[in-house]
Amino acid sequence: MNKALLLFRLKMSLAIIAILLLGAAFTYGIMWWLTGGSIGGVALVTGLVIMAFFLTLFQWLIGPFLINAMYRAHEVKPDDPTYGWVYDMVADVARANGFKDVPKVYIADVPFPNAFAYGSPIAGKRVAITLPLLKILKPSELKAVLGHEIGHLRHRDVEVLMAVGLLPTVIYWLGWSLWWGGWWGGWSEGRDNGGGLLLLIGLILIAVSFLFQLFVLYINRLREAYADINGALTVENGAHNLQRALAKITLYMDPNIVKRTTNGTLRMLFFAPPVSTEYIESNVEDLIEYWRHYKPSIWEELFMTHPHPARRIQMLDRIAESSP
Known about the structure:
Number of helices: 12
Oligomer: single chain
Distance between the termini: 12 Å
Order of helices and strands: HHEHEEEHHHHHHHHH
C-alpha cells in the first residue's frame, strides 16, 4: 500500500476515535458532575444517545427517497436510450472498486453540476449525476468523479459520518434540556433553586455542540479527501481528470473566479449564472495552475464540508506523482 495513503488512513482513524472518545467523556463527565455521580445522569445521556441514534437511523432509511424527490431524480437502466452509457460507466467504476452489484444510477434534473453517492439498507446504494454535470464534463472527467463518489460507498462514509454526527446532536439536546429545565424550574419556583446554574451549563453545552460540529466538518473533509484518493487510484488518469472536473464545476458556478485569481484573491461563490462550455474549457488549466500555488488558511476551510479546492488539487498532484 502507498505509504502516504497508509498515513492518511491512520490520521483519519485516529481523528475519528479521538473525537468520539472526547465527546463521550465530556458528555458523561458533565452529567456525572451535575448529578453527583448518580446513575440517573448516565441513564439520561444514554437515553439521549439512543434517541438520537434512532432518529438519525430513521432519517438515513428514508433519506434517499426524499433526495430523489427534491432533486427530481429518475433512475437510469442499462437499456436507457439516452443515458445507458452513464449506467455502463458507473458499472465499470463500481467493478474496479470491487462491487459485485452495480449501484442504482439516477439522473437529477437540477440547475447545477454535481454528483453524489447516497443510499440506505432499504433503498440500496445509489449514485446520482445532475444534468449540467453531464453537459460540462468529458467522459474521462465524469469517470474520475464517479471514482470519487463510488469511493464514498466503498468507504461507508454515510455510516461513518452518521456515527460521528451523533455527538454534537446529543450534546446540543442535553444543553437544550438543561437550559429549559433551568429556565422553567427557576420561573416556577420564583426563587434561586439552582436554575441559574442549569441555564448557564445548558448554554455552555449548546456552544460546545457547535464546537463539536466543527470537528464533524473536519472529519467530513478528511472523508472527501479520501474519496478523491479513491478516484485518483481506481480510474485511469483519475488525478488529472478529477482536477479538471473540480475546476469546471467551480467555473460553472462562479465564472468570475478567474478575474479574482489574477488579483490573488479567491472567494468561493456559488450563485453566479452558468456560462458556456467554451468559456469553461478555456479557463480550466489556468484555474488549476492557480490552485497549485495557492495556500488557503485554516479559516477558509473552517466551515466547509469539503477541503479547499487548492488542497485537493495539490493532493491529487502528489498522488499522480507517487503512482506508478
